[in-house]
Specification:
Strand content: 15-25%
Bound molecules: ligand C2E, magnesium ion
Helix content: 40-55%
Low-confidence stretches: 50-65, 67-93, 97-154
Shape: rod-shaped
Mean pLDDT: 80
Structural class: alpha/beta
Number of helices: 19
CATH topology of the largest domain: TIM Barrel
Distance between the termini: 99 Å
Radius of gyration: 62 Å
Oligomer: single chain
C-alpha cells in the first residue's frame, strides 16, 4: 500500500467526513468570536480607555459649557432635564483666587451612551461631587469661555456588559477550541491508527518480500539437491575471498573435485541413487571443511572448494587427503551400497593465477591430470599443464581439419615369424604429416583425441583406410596379410561403432579375419560387460583380437582366460631392457609361456637389434615386430617388400 492510497482510504471514510464537519464548526466558532472581539469588544475597550478625559469629555464638555454659559449668562437651567448638583471651582486668572460657583446641573442622561455615567465634573484643579457652590462667579477663559472639564466614566453596567460579552466570547472560543482539539485528537488518533495499520501492512509486505527474496536467493544461489552453494554463489564469493587473501598476503587454494565413474552409478542404479550419492558426498565433504572454507557444487558430479587465508600449502594436502579418505567407507544408498572415489585438481593463488576464472580453469586442468594418473588422487597445477592444454586445443582443431581434408596416412609395419621368416601380419600405424614433412607422434595426439572424443572418427578413418589398402593390394594381385589396427577404449563404449566396423569390412568385400584389432591392456583392467560383449561380437565375426603392450598395465593372467583373445604383444620396454636385465627377460619368458599356454599368438614389439631378436627366440617368442625388421612403411613400400604376387 503506498502513501497515496492511505490518504485516499482515509478521506473516503465516513468518520473523516464527520470529523471534518466538526472541525469546520469549531473553526467557524473561533472565527466568530475573533470577529466579535475585533469589531465589538475591542473597540469598546479602546473607547472606554480613551473616554475618561478626552473623547467623551470634549464633546460633552462643550454641551455642558453651553449650559454654563446659559447658567452664568441667561441662567436658563430649565433646559436640563435631569438635575445633578455639582460644584464648580473656578480659578480667577487675574487674582488667582478660587471662585466657586454652585450650580445645580440637570444633565440629560439620555444624551449619554447607556453604558456611561457622568460622574464627575471638573473645573480647574478641584473636583468634587454632589456639592453646591452658589456664591462664586464662573471662571471664563481669556476668550471668555468657561473652562470646564467634564469627566465621565463608564458605569458598572458597562463593565458588566463588557465582562459578559468577554465571558460569552471566551466561552464560545473555548467551545470552538475544544471542538477543534477533540476533532484533531480524534482524527490524529485515527490517522495514527491508519498509519500504524499501514506500517503493519508495510512491515508484513516487506517481510513477505524479504522471505520471497530469501527463497529466490536460496534457489538462485544454492544447489537444491545438496544445499551447498552453487557455482553462481561460488563465483560471487570467490572474488571476495581472493581479495581478502591478497590483502592479508596469504595463499588461497582452489580444489576441483570430480567423482570417478559417477556416470556408471547413474547408469547401473538409476538417477535417484545417483542423487542420493551426491547428497552423501556433499555431507562427507562438508564435514572436513574448515569454517572459512567454501564448498560448492559446481555442477553434475563436480565440487569446488576454496580454502582462503592459507599460510602453508601443506594445509591443503592435509584437507584433501582427509576428503579422499572420507570416500573410503562405502556409501549406503537406498537400494544400493556404492564405492566411489574422487579425483582432485588444485591451483594456488598467487602462483597459478590471480582471478577466479583462471584459478578454476587451472584446478580443472590439474583434475584431468589426476584422472590420467589413475584417479582417486590429487594433483597440483603446474605450468606445463597449461602448455599441454594449448597443445590439446591445437590438436583438437587441426585434427578435425586433417580428417576433413584426408591428410592422415596409415603406415604398415611387418610382424615376422622367426621360424619361417614369413610376414604373416602387419600393424597399421597412423601418421599425421605436417607441412614441414614431420609427423606428429601418434602417442601424443591419440590421447588427446581420446579425451575430446574425436578418437571415434579417427578409428573410423583407420578401419576404412586399412580396408581400402587391403582391398587395393588384393586388386593389385598381392597375397595380403592380416592388418592389425589399434582401437581405443572409447571405441568400445559404443557398441554401434563396432558393428559399423564390421560393416566397413564387408563393404570392402573383405573377410573379418583379414583385419585384426589391438586393444590397450588397461581396458581389460576391470572389463565391463559392455567391453566383453563388444569383444565377443568382433571375435565371433572372425576378427583377430590381441592385447597391446602386455605387461605394462594391470591386466591379470585371469583376463587372458576370460576374454575372447587371439594374441598378446609383449611391450617393447621388456625387449629393450632384456639385454641388461635378467628380470625383464624372465618376464618376457613368463608372458610368452602364459600366452602360448592359453593358445594365443605372442608377438614381441620394438625389436631393434639382432640381440633383441636372439633374446626373443631364447624365450620362445617367435614372432617379432620392430625396426630391426623394418620401420613402418607406406602401403606401396610394404607391398613391394613383403607381399607376394599371386
Ligand atoms: P603401439 O600400438 O604399441 O605401436 C607400436 C609403436 O612402436 C609404434 O609407434 C611403432 O612405430 C613403434 N615401433 C616399431 N618398431 C619400433 C622399434 O624398433 N623401436 C621403437 N622404439 N619403437 C618401435 P607409433 O607408430 O609412434 O605409435 C605409437 C602408439 O600410438 C601405438 O603404440 C598405438 O598405441 C598408438 N597408435 C598408433 N596408430 C594408431 C591408430 O591408428 N589408432 C590408435 N587408436 N592408436 C594408434
Ligand atoms: Mg599397437
Ligand atoms: Mg605396442
Amino acid at each position: 500500500m503506498n502513501k497515496q492510497s492511505i490518504f485516499k482510504n482515509f478521506f473516503n471514510s465516513v468518520d473523516l467526513k464527520s470529523s471534518l464537519l466538526f472541525l469546520g464548526i469549531g473553526l467557524v466558532i473561533i472565527a466568530m468570536t475573533l470577529w466579535n472581539w475585533h469589531y465589538d469588544v475591542k473597540p469598546r475597550l479602546i473607547n472606554e480607555a480613551q473616554s475618561n478625559t478626552r473623547v467623551l469629555a470634549s464633546s460633552y464638555a462643550r454641551s455642558i459649557e453651553s449650559q454654563f454659559q446659559n447658567v452664568t449668562g441667561q441662567t436658563d437651567i430649565s433646559v436640563i432635564h435631569n438635575s445633578i448638583n455639582e460644584m464648580l471651582l473656578i480659578n480667577d486668572p487675574t487674582t488667582g483666587e478660587k471662585l466657586y460657583y454652585g450650580i445645580t446641573l440637570e444633565v440629560d442622561y439620555d444624551a449619554f451612551p447607556a453604558d456611561y455615567d457622568l460622574v464627575n465634573f471638573n473645573v480647574g484643579e478641584t473636583s468634587c461631587k454632589s456639592c453646591i457652590i452658589t456664591e462664586n462667579p464662573i471662571y471664563k477663559s481669556g476668550s471668555g469661555e468657561l473652562i470646564a472639564i467634564l469627566k465621565i466614566y463608564a458605569n458598572p453596567v458597562f463593565y458588566q456588559r463588557l465582562v459578559e460579552d468577554i465571558v460569552n466570547d471566551l466561552a464560545l472560543m473555548l467551545i470552538g477550541i475544544i471542538i477543534v482539539l477533540v476533532v484533531a485528537w480524534l482524527t490524529s488518533n485515527r490517522l495514527m491508527e491508519r498509519i500504524r495499520e499501514h506500517e503493519r501492512s508495510l512491515v508484513y509486505e516487506i517481510a513477505e518480500r524479504k522471505s520471497a527474496e530469501e527463497r529466490l536467493h536460496q534457489v538462485a544461489a544454492y544447489d537444491q539437491l545438496t544445499n551447498l552453494p552453487n557455482r553462481y554463489l561460488l563465483q560471487a564469493d570467490f572474488a571476495r575471498k581472493l581479495e581478502e587473501s591478497g590483502r592479508n598476503g596469504k595463499m588461497l587454494a582452489t580444489l576441483f573435485f570430480d567423482l570417478d565413474n559417477f556416470k556408471e552409478v547413474n547408469d547401473v542404479h538409476g538417477h535417484e541413487t545417483g542423487d542420493a550419492l551426491l547428497k552423501q558426498v556433499a555431507k562427507r565433504m562438508s564435514g572436513v571443511t574448515r569454517n572459512y572454507d567454501l564448498l560448492a557444487r559446481f555442477g553434475g558430479d563436480e565440487f569446488v572448494m576454496i580454502m582462503s587465508n592459507l599460510d602453508d600449502r601443506l594445509d591443503v594436502n592435509q584437507v584433501v587427503e582427509k576428503i579422499i579418505a572420507g570416500f573410503v567407507p562405502a556409501f549406503d544408498l537406498p537400494g544400493a551400497t556404492v564405492h566411489i572415489t574422487t579425483s582432485v585438481g588444485i591451483s594456488i593463488f598467487p602462483e597459478d593465477g590471480n582471478d577466479p576464472n583462471e584459478l578454476l580453469k587451472n584446478a580443472d586442468l590439474a583434475m584431468y591430470r589426476a584422472k590420467a594418473e589413475g584417479r582417486n588422487c590429487y594433483q597440483f597445477f603446474s605450468s606445463e599443464m597449461n602448455l599441454e592444454l594449448q597443445y590439446s586445443q591445437w590438436v583438437a582443431t587441426n585434427l578435425r581439419r586433417a580428417l576433413d581434408d584426408n591428410r592422415l596416412k596409415l603406415y604398415f609395419q611387418p610382424q615376422v615369424n622367426l621360424e619361417t621368416g614369413a610376414v604373416e601380419s602387419c600393424e597399421a600405424l597412423i601418421r599425421w604429416p605436417q607441412e614441414d614433412g614431420e609427423n606428429i607422434n601418434p602417442d601424443d595426439f591419440i590421447k588427446i583425441a581420446e579425451r575430446t572424443g574425436q578418437i571415434v572418427e579417427v578409428s573410423n578413418w583407420v578401419v576404412n583406410e586399412a580396408c581400402r589398402v587391403t582391398r587395393e593390394w588384393m586388386d593389385q594381385g598381392y597375397e595380403t596379410v592380416r592388418v592389425d589396427i589399434n582401437l581405443s577404449g572409447k571405441d568400445f563404449a559404443n557398441r554401434g561403432v563396432l558393428y559399423k566396423f564390421l560393416q566397413i569390412i564387408q563393404r570392402h568385400h573383405l573377410k573379418a579375419g583379414q583385419i585384426g584389432v589391438e586393444i590397450a591392456e588397461n581396458i581389460l583392467l576391470e572389463p565391463t560387460d559392455q567391453v566383453i560383449n563388444a569383444l565377443t561380437v568382433l571375435h565371433n565375426a572372425g576378427v583377430h583380437i590381441s592385447i597391446d603392450d602386455f605387461g605394462t598395465g594391470y591386466s591379470s593372467l585371469n583376463s587372458l582366460k576370460r576374454l575372447p583373445l587371439a594374441g598378446i604383444k609383449i611391450d617393447e620396454s621388456f625387449v629393450h631392457a632384456a639385454p641388461n636385465s635378467k628380470d625383464d627377460l624372465t618376464i618376457m619368458q613368463a608372458i610368452t609361456l602364459a600366452g602360448q599356454g592359453f593358445g594365443l599368438d605372442v608377438i614381441a614389439e620394438g625389436v631393434e637389434t639382432e640381440w633383441h631378436q636372439t633374446l626373443c627366440k631364447e624365450v620362445g617368442c617367435n614372432t617379432i615386430q620392430g625396426n630391426y625388421v623394418s620401420k613402418p612403411l607406406t602401403p606401396e613400400d610394404f607391398a613391394a617388400r613383403y607381399l607376394k604376387k599371386n
